């Protein structure tokens, strides 16, 4: 009996190890995945699917990285999707004036298929040639009703862009006053635009004055500016917090990759609440630069022409298609690196499996 139990244990452990190395892929319009390793959920969120393309979101490296492979043609003025990673909702909804910090850190890159090793200039040409219209952004949905802020179609959206192609600008870019509404966060100036999308949502969008490929900052000053300037009420509830890429058009297969991400809210009174940072407001014109897509450098820049055409439009329907709660960090990850733990478990599984076979051979 002990030999049988040992064999079963070895088999189960080996299967578990193999399962940890498998990536999760989401290709359905609203396919979602709730991680048990990190406090996030993921959604392919192709909410504007026009039947003329595809999008697949892949989660890997113990859910600490994800990529999106997509190609969308048809009307280039409409959003096809916003594949995203979604923050643990345990501290949501929260009223804007009770947000102590909005911590966001990540690295990312976007490239047309087979151009990932090209220079910045060559990649920019490839993006222009394929008609790429995308951005990378943190996205939030708000309402004056706490329950509505976590459901379908909240009336207010706040986006913080980090990277975008020069062919897109946010809603309201013609009527907004970005030269006045500019705030510096972690050495980068962001300017505010706001307008209404086709779904009737009031959308506020912060644009950086240069494209970024990594961020490690607290974005709460951008939220605070909006209600301190009387543009929105601080009593509004934020019910959803996401990070992803908004896609309007890609004539060829294109890839978005993100890794090392942290996205979380702390509220006034939380034990880990940070001191509120000082907001610096400046006046400057909005310009865009394309940064290096190298994983090790974000300092090389190339100027681009600010030639936006149709503004982007976003929608909460796909973004809220899964109300499932992301699980907490797995206890198996505590005290070990994921790679080291997997390696140790694999060795143990091989040892137990070999031992069980040896015992059975000796018994026979």
TrEMBL record:
Pfam families, alphabetized: Glyco_hydro_12 (PF01670)
InterPro entries, per database record: ConA-like_dom_sf (IPR013320), GH11/12 (IPR013319), GH12 (IPR002594)
GO biological process: polysaccharide catabolic process
One MF term in the entry's GO annotations: cellulase activity
Region (Disordered): 267-325
Assigned keywords, A-Z: Carbohydrate metabolism, Glycosidase, Hydrolase, Membrane, Polysaccharide degradation, Signal, Transmembrane, Transmembrane helix
Composition skew (Low complexity), residue ranges: 277-325
Membrane-spanning parts: 340-360
Annotated protein name in UniProt: Endoglucanase
Provenance organism: Exophiala bonariae
């Amino acid at each position: 009996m002990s030999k049988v139990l040992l064999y079963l244990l070895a088999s189960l452990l080996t299967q578990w190890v193999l399962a940890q190395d498998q990536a999760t892929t989401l290709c359905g319009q609203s396919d979602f995945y709730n991680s048990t390793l990190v406090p996030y959920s993921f959604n392919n969120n192709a909410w504007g699917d026009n039947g003329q393309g595809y999008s697949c979101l892949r989660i890997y490296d113990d859910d600490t990285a994800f990529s999106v492979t997509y190609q969308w043609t048809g009307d280039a003025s409409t959003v096809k999707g916003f594949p995203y990673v979604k923050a643990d909702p345990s501290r949501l909804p929260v009223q804007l004036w009770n947000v102590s910090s909005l911590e966001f850190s990540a690295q990312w890159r976007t490239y047309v298929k087979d151009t990932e090793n090209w220079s910045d200039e060559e990649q920019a040409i490839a993006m222009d040639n394929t008609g790429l219209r995308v951005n990378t952004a943190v996205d939030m949905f708000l309402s004056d009703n706490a329950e509505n802020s976590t459901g379908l179609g909240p009336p207010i959206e706040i986006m913080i862009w980090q990277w975008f192609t020069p062919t897109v600008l946010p809603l309201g870019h013609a009527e907004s006053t970005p030269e006045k509404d500019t705030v510096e966060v972690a050495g980068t100036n962001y300017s505010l635009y706001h307008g209404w999308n086709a779904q009737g949502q009031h959308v506020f969008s912060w644009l950086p004055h240069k494209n970024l490929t990594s961020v490690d900052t607290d974005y709460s000053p951008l939220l605070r500016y909006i209600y301190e300037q009387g543009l929105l009420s601080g009593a509004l509830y934020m019910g959803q917090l996401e990070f992803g890429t908004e896609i309007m058009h890609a004539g060829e297969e294109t890839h978005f990759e993100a890794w090392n991400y942290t996205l979380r809210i702390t509220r006034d009174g939380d034990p880990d609440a940070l001191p509120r940072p000082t907001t610096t407001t400046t006046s400057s014109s909005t310009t865009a630069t394309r940064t290096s897509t190298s994983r090790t450098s974000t300092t090389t820049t190339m100027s681009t022409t600010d030639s936006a055409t149709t503004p982007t439009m976003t929608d909460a329907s796909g973004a809220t298609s899964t109300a499932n709660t992301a699980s907490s960090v797995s206890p198996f990850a505590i005290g070990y690196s994921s790679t080291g733990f997997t390696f140790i478990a694999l060795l143990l599984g091989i040892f137990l499996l070999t031992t069980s076979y040896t015992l059975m051979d000796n018994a026979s």
